[in-house]
Hints:
Elements (H helix, E strand, L loop, with lengths): L1 E6 L2 H7 L3 H8 L4 E6 L12 E2 L9 E2 L1 H15 L4 E11 L2 H8 L3 E5 L8 H6 L3 E4 L9 H12 L9 H5 L27 H4 L3 H19 L8
Parallel strand pairs: 1-2, 1-6, 5-6, 5-7
Antiparallel strand pairs: 3-4
Helix pairs in contact: 4-6
Bound molecules: ligand 9D3.
Amino acid sequence: MKIDIVTIFPAMVTAALAEGIVGRAVASGVIDLRVHDLRDFTTDRRHVVDDMPFGGGPGMVLKPEPLFAAVDQIREERGIPSAVILTSPDGERLTHAVAARLSALDHLVILCGRYEGVDERVREHLATEAISIGDYVLSGGELPALVMVDALARQIPGVVGDAASVAGDTFARDGLLDFPQYTRPAEFRGHGVPAVLLSGHHAEIEKWRRQQALERTRKHRPDLLKDS
Ligand code: 9D3
């Protein structure tokens, strides 16, 4: 899968995607990643990427020209992308289902928004969709882009070593939260481990885990139990 990310903080994005499971997928070539510095697509001496909003108001807005120029170059060098995603607080909410859909595409371009926003012509005439990672205000789209790539990379066959681990992910399994996990030691600072987990009775362990998952979901995420 080809992924191109356009950002004013290429070092931040590159560093994060070099680590862990995603880092391994990039190193092995399963993900063909390129990170582009938006400032490389400016034509003025000062490499300015933002400007004041027409109509007034606080903050700055990302200019359209460098973003369009970046996608033009990506198209020439890498081919026509399957999707051009703008990170935006008013985009579609990222869910496990959205990550699964994106993971099946062959070439993604992700444009990281910044400042108070992005010129609307980018949203209307360059991006094919806009994605938010949730209802909290961040300083820009870099962390959302990283979240998106991490979530979708896990869904690409072979990226996570243990397929059972992906199939068992919360939200993938059956819409329930995870059951509690324990490892050694069996007693730690006076706190034990539920006896059933040490019993070796696999059917009982399964039953206990299911019941714990249900109980936690009821307590912390009742919305997941309502059918919709
Ligand atoms: C909703 C806040 N906006 C009020 C007019 C201004 C604004 C604040 C911060 C616009 C953009 C940003 C920067 N945030 C993102 O670019 C962003 C984001 C986020 O803040 N939360 C969740 N997902 C995302 S995806 C991109």
